[in-house]
Amino acid sequence: MAVNTSPESPLPVGEVSRLIGGWIDRLGAVWVEGQITQLSRRPGAGVVFLTLRDPSHDISVSVTCYRQVFDAVADVVGEGARVVVLAKPEWYAPRGQLSLRAAEIRPVGVGELLARLEQLKKSLAAEGLFAPERKTALPFLPQLIGLVCGRASAAERDVLENARHRWPAVRFEVRNVPVQGVHAVPQVVQAVKELDAMDEVDVIIVARGGGSVEDLLPFSDEQLVRAVAGCRTPVVSAIGHEPDTPLLDYVADLRASTPTDAAKKVVPDVGEELERVRMLRDRARRCAAAFVEREERGLAHALARPAIQDPHRMLDERADHVLSLLERGRRTLGHLLDRADSELTHTHARVVALSPSATLRRGYAVLQRADGHVVRDPAEVTAGEALRARVADGELTVKVDG
Fold first, then answer.
1. How far is CA 209 from CA 132, 247, 257, 260, in A?
2. For residue range 223-260, what is the model confidence (pLDDT) as tens digits?
3. How distant, in Å, are the alpha carbons of 154, 227, 389 from that of 248?
4. Residue 210 — left, alpha, or beta (φ > 0 → left; ψ -120 to 50 → alpha)?
5. Helix (H/G/I), strand (E/B), else coil: 58
6. Taken in order 205, 209, 212, 214, is the CA torsion positive or negative?
7. Model confidence over 280-319: pLDDT tens digits?
8. Distance in angstroms (rounded) separating the CA atoms of residues 51 and 49
9. How far apart are CA 77 and CA 73, in angstroms?
10. DSSP H helical segments within 145-269, as ranges?
11. Are 235 and 191 in contact (CB under 8 A)?
12. Under a CB-based contact definition with an 8 Å cutoff, are residues 387 and 369 in contact?
């Protein structure tokens, strides 16, 4: 409950500590899970002191228990082990210190760990952190590789030696961190973030040798998985051996079965690339030679054609044909003109023979009245009427005689 205080009526430190102790006592016993980071078992002492840590949130709390409580699990529990503790929170008023008094300690078995990891895996997969479309392709030839591994570890040696054997000019930015234990997760996360912040780093390899399920637990930690998911630099997971599959394998852009396999997948082999270049050069040379040979054959075939060997032959043949057609056209036109002339002459003769002028030349005359009307009947004229007579060579005037 709230305590009424003021600058004029403050509570003494002892009273505040006593009140905190009273509040904590009301909590009662609770089951707590964590990882043992420090363990103190003094010979002859009846109390065992240990520190229980939450690696995901970097929080620790002191735990005490009677020796017989710890002896029940002493053979299977040590520093770095994950345990579940039934404990009652206690407040040590003189020092203002919180601790847990353990009444029972249970080690977390491998089966239980795997079940929890499977549940976490499903939860992260549902968020889409393992989706293939989130993964980034590795560069063909990284200029600088970030490596997160244990100090002087076999994993570091395998990656460096194999990568430099494949491509001697490759460069590394190495971050040596603990790869197991309570400090592994925060330091691995920090190393990954540091390398991801470096623009010159093209790819990051997180490597560790083989180990038990408990040893590889840091690489299934949710904090590390989310940190890798947020990296803009491609990340390669090279944890343990082929059967080992920590959650880091699922979120990484590429999974390598071993650290050696990571070096082979990240760095190309200079010998293989030179051989590939040689093969491509030979293939290009063969393609170019085949193209030239094919064009030469086509050109030779074209030159062998009569039209190319004697190009004027076709013109000469066409010229003769044109001359033949020209003569034929002239003859045909001449015949047509002659026939037309003959027909014209005959037609002219017929026209002349049938014309009024020819009739007049044979002695006939055409009588016309003064108005130009042709006289066809004697009844049409009257006595004494003057008529115009048209003959072959001219006209004359005649008068009708009663």
1. 26, 16, 10, 10
2. 999 999 999 999 999 998 877 788 999 999 999 989 99
3. 20, 10, 138
4. beta
5. coil
6. negative
7. 999 999 999 999 999 999 998 888 887 777 878 778 878 8
8. 7
9. 6
10. 154-166, 184-197, 222-229, 247-251, 259-266
11. no
12. yes
Provide the whole-model pTM: 0.55
Regarding predicted confidence, which is higher, 368 or 338? 338
Here the tokens at position 123 are 């939860």
C-alpha span between 101 and 79 (Å, rounded): 18
pLDDT at 356: 76
Amino acid identity of residue 213, one-letter, is V
What tokens were used for 11?
Answer: 């509570």
| CA atoms within 13 Å, Cβ hemisphere of 84 | 7
Contact call for residues 1 and 23 (beta carbons, < 8 A): no
**Would you tell me how many other CB atoms lie within 10 Å of the CB of residue 86?**
16
Residues in the chain: 402
Closest C-alpha to 193, from 181, 206, 180: 206
Say whether pLDDT at 2 is over 70: no
DSSP state of 218: G
Q: What residues have CB less than 8 Å from 56, skipping those under 6 apart?
A: 185, 221, 222, 223
Distance CA 198, CA 214 (A): 32
CA atoms within 13 A on the CB side of 1: 1
pLDDT digits (tens, 9 = 90+) for 159-208: 999 999 999 999 999 999 998 877 889 999 999 999 999 999 999 999 99
The sheet with strand 366-368 has its strands ordered as 366-368, 386-391, 394-399
Distance CA 193, CA 148 (A): 11
Q: Tell me which residue of 112, 111, 145, 123 sits closest to 256, measured CA to CA.
A: 145
- SS3 of 82, please? strand
**Is-contact 146 200, C-beta < 8 A?**
no
Q: How far is Cα 332 from Cα 326, in angstroms, rounded to an integer?
A: 10
- Give the ranges where 230-269 is alpha helix by DSSP (H): 247-251, 259-266
Using CB atoms within 10 Å of the CB of residue 400, give its burial: 0 to 12 exposed, 13 to 18 middle, 19+ buried: middle
Query: Using an 8 Å Cβ cutoff, are 84 and 35 in contact?
Result: no
Task: Annotate 10-32 with DSSP letters as a single string.
Answer: PPPHHHHHHHHHHHHHTT--EEE
